[in-house]
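@channel sequence for tomorrow's demo:
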Amino acid sequence: MSSFEDAIIQRIRSLEREVERLQRWEQPVGNWQAYTVSWTATTTNPSIGNGTLVGRYTQIGKTIMGNILLICGSTTTFGSGNWRFSLPKISASSNMPFMGHFAILDSGTCFYVGTILIDNGCAYFEKVRRDGDGYGAFSSTLPHVWAVNDELQIAFTYETA
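structure tokens (generated this afternoon):
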């Protein structure tokens, strides 16, 4: 093999390594990924039981966009204290607390809508602003007493570190 051929082979291997590195570190735009949502509370943690709790997100640069869906089942327990839902990645700052919207279906009764806010270390959100109802938090009794077939849908956007 000539030195020219060796140089080409080395260059191809170098390019292959660079492509592999980029594939590991760079996520394609629009590639949605599932993530495991951690649902906790300040006193006793809730449990999803036979309900549904799913999260998904996409990242474009440092911008995270995602959503969470909670559907209460017959064996879902609601814990006590303020609920918290984890983010897929740590937020860059808690100085910009607005991050999204929520909609709640109190099955067979009414809808609630409002704003999601980052709180406590930027790893999850806890505080919400219910339209017309001031600041508060989700809990087993707020904004209503949760039951089978109730739904919580959350859409969020924020900057990651």
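heads up for whoever presents: The chain has a mean pLDDT of 82.
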